[in-house]
Amino acid sequence: MPEVPDEKNDSVHKDFVIILLWAMNGVIIPMKRKISMALSDIKQISIREYLKNKGILPKKDFGYYGMYFCPFREDHNTSFKVDYRQNIWYDFGTNEGGSIIDLVMKMNNCTIHEAATQLEKDFSGTDLNSFSFHRDNTLDKKKN
Asked: N or C: at which end does the chain have fewer Cβ atoms within 10 angstroms?
């Protein structure tokens, strides 16, 4: 791992700046771009709205959750559940699930930083407090 400049040796790698470090499974990953939204705020982005923005709609909607065809593998049954209240997903076909960040990582085969950056880009400027308790409200994608 490259040496990070400190007060005593600020000439080392002057052009190398780590803005954010993320520890994942004991591995430190240097991040090159600062994420201005907190991860806790990014996790509040509605999975339902994210999928809708991708053109993925539930095949069965039960009010507080929806059943989808899995967005990251071939699926002939509606085995992908999105719980709108808890804002989590679960794929019964692979026994995997998680938050919006986990879903973006899985769908795009990317790192947590890349997923958070993409979500921030797509949803920055969105009023995250506009969600209802049941997450039935939708987010309008920021118009550029």
From this structure: C
Give the residue among 41, 45, 44, 63 at the shortest CA–CA distance from 53: 45
106 burial class (0-12, 13-18, 19+ CB within 10 angstroms)? buried
**Cα–Cα distance for residue pair 41/35, rounded to 1 Å:** 11
> SS3 letters for 14-32?
CCCCCCEEEEECCEEEEEC
User: According to the CATH classification, is domain 37-130 in 3.90.580.10?
Assistant: yes
Q: How confident is residue 6, by pLDDT bands cut at 50, 70 and 90?
A: very low
For 38-78, write each residue's pLDDT tens digit: 888 899 999 999 999 999 999 999 999 999 999 999 999 99
- Give span(s): CATH 3.90.580.10, the chain: 37-130
144 versus 91: which is more confidently predicted? 91
Checking 16-25 for CB contacts under 8 A at 24+ apart, the result is 20/113, 22/112, 22/113, 24/112
What is this structure's pTM? 0.63
Mean predicted confidence (pLDDT) in 116-135: 65
